[in-house]
Amino acid sequence: MLVSTWSLAGFVVGHAGLYQALAMFAVAYFIIGMTVLSVCAIATNGALDAGGAYYMISRALGPEFGGSIGIMFFLANVCGSALYVLGLVEAVVDSFGVPPGQKVGTGVHVLPQSYWYELLYGTILLALCLVVCLVGASIYAKATFLIFLIVAGVLGTILISFFATRPIGVPIRLPHFNGSEIENGSFTGFSLATLRDNLGGGYGVDYTTGQMMSFSSVFAVMFNGCTGIMAGSNMSGDLKRPSYSIPRGTISAVLFTYLVYNLLAFFMCATCNRTLLQKDYGFLRDISIFPPLVTVGIYAATLSAAMSNLIGASRILYALARDDLFGRALALAKKTSASGNPIMAVILSWLVVQLVLFSGKLNTIAGVVTTFFLLVYATVNLACLALEWASAPNFRPTFRYFTWHTCLLGIAGCCVMMFLISPVSASASLGFLLLLLLALHYLSPSSTWGYISQALIFHQVRKYLLMLDVRKDHVKFWRPQMLLMVQNPRGSARLIDFVNDLKKSGLYVLGHVELQDLDALPSDPLQPQQDSWLGLVDKLNVKAFVSLTLAPSVRHGVRQLLFTSGLGGMRPNTLVLGFYDDAAPQDGLAQHPAFTSAREEVPLGFPPVRAPAAPKLLSAREYVGIVADALKMLRNVLLARHLESLDKAWELRRAASSPPSIHVWPVNLLRPDSARYADTCSLFLLQMACVLNMTRAWRRAHLRLFLCVEAGAMPHAQEDKLRQLLKDLRIQAQIQLVPWDAVVSLHWQAQRAPPGGPALAEEESAVNFPANATQVSDEYVCAANKLILEQGPAPAVRFLYLPRPPADTSLYPLYLHHLDLLTRDLGPTVLVHGVSAVTSTQL
């Protein structure tokens, strides 16, 4: 099949008829037109460099899409160059080849015909293209301008020939297994009868391949003749003003070629019978008033197209190599001549085209080339669509004749035609593209081009955050949204990991307070720290945000974060703190599994942990004040103690043979006289333990719920009531009755102690709770701690009820002292106080 504008039109109308040919041209140029609008928009939105469509896509969609589509576009241009070379060989052999049964040297037919001879002719023609491309873009531009003048002259001659040539018969020699056979085509001049005969489709066998033609196969070949729209953008690095030249040149070329295709299709249908159109793709020489000029024009146009694709492929390869997306694999393609011509990229492209030439026949690669080009065009439209939908202020192209509708139509048209032409090629191309995407995503270095995905995510998140109405919150859909305060991640790595398991797909914020005064500083000290914290989040593989603040005290900083963290309906509802004690912090970051294979990255810019003799950044009174502040702000509070001793990896390894357990104590052990199992705080504690048990890492753990009972208090009735509550809440847990008469008796003894004497000292060491009705002694708290320890075997983690801080702030240190006694030596423990309803028994 001859690949040139005028002969291509004859091939299309010969098989498809005028109506379907016009439809094919309309569909092809609709896709091309939509893509051209996207190309012009991107080309006029900033400075363009070498690479054309690859450069546009990579800088818009990021390195993954850009690199994968760059390879696809490179292959499309390589195959396109081979396609045009094979077309030129076919035209040369058709004119000068020795017909079967004749000897070499008869008339003008002097070129032997065989697969290897045709491969030799193609190699010689490709070498000519290589020489021109090696000289540089300037000689290529001069050569293509000269070819344009020749083609324009030939086109004018052909149009005149339709009117000037008289009706003639054209003998057509067709290859046959016995040699050759002769069929007669005819040029009738303008004839209504001829036009009627050529209106409908009449698909036949392609005489060059012996394959039956169809709408999709004809469209595949026809579309290859329309892919020159990217020739100008491929030369973007060689143009003086690409943002000016690409829109004007590309749109002019599209309009001109569309007009020529339709005009030639009509003239051919009105003047040539179907036999001539189907059986002789070089019939224009026979009807021309000057046949040699047509031959020269065909050769020139096809050679120009081959060079255009070869030089386009080399520029794309050079741009890919320069961006280092494939590392050393393309390092050789970076080499350029003294004038800046990427000679190694040209030579590598030439080698790949030479390999494609071994396919031998046009139809072998026509469908693949078309699929590749359609995929590239679809991605160009996708890039422009993404930029438009992202609504980024810096996307303001000077070319404004496009909308997101044109981009979407271009994408849809490309995808539909890809699968209509060849479902197998389309599926294989998409699969190859997906593999390249995944490879580049995991292996390519990070770039500084900007990622359109971030802009699109921002746009969508903002929209959905506005739709997230806090007034429509319902307890059925409650989830924990955590703010974990971290002084130094070196001593909190396992706590960070634990809270990540506890968040249940909710918001998770790592908060940090820097004790400095911005007025006394030259710049914000938090900005340099941001990357270290984000790097920590990546290394620990936790789904968390980072929120840093400056404050004169830790308490003020935590208040700021509780007020300002989050956005809209996504705000922290639970504050998590490490426990305040005298234990020296340990640097557990180096022992964390995330850092065992990359110890050189452990520092991450964080200071060493606090030395044991160094003063703390906050006092006990301030620490308890933070808890009180959070409860006043209606935030749930979790205090985590000994979480750094929780080896989750070990717990998971032993889960197969001995599943770990989670102990839950839903009673306020510091208020035994008002212990209840169904208050808001107890239910919240149950919910948090259940949430932890629902996560994948803790799914095999067993929940054990401890019911503290006294003699004569109908323990079985209490157990049945609690079991029914767990059933209503769909919580699976084992209930264990714990007699605690001996412990409670210590509490009542303290209550009955007479005033004055030794009791006065005890009163001073007691906690007056807001109701001022309970006094708790150290002896009682130690007994409660011992009671918890006796319930073996030791669990992976314990959940205990956290009472509210006393109303009298002077008792804050004593309150913290009792919490210390209660949780001493318990191992990983979480003290929980909930202020919001979080459980529901409704659908």
UniProtKB/TrEMBL annotation:
* Superkingdom, natural source: Eukaryota
One GO MF term attached to the UniProt entry? potassium:chloride symporter activity
Organism this protein belongs to:
Apteryx owenii (Little spotted kiwi)
Tell me which residues make up the Amino acid permease/ SLC12A domain: 9-483
List the protein's name.
Answer: Solute carrier family 12 member 9
UniProt keyword list: Membrane, Transmembrane, Transmembrane helix, Transport
Query: Where would I find the SLC12A transporter C-terminal domain in this sequence?
Result: 494-582
What the entry lists under Pfam families is as follows: AA_permease (PF00324), SLC12 (PF03522)
Membrane-crossing residue ranges in chain numbering = 26-48, 69-89, 119-140, 145-164, 253-276, 296-321, 342-359, 365-389, 401-421, 427-444
- InterPro entries from the UniProt entry: AA-permease/SLC12A_dom (IPR004841), SLC12_C (IPR018491), SLC12A_fam (IPR004842)
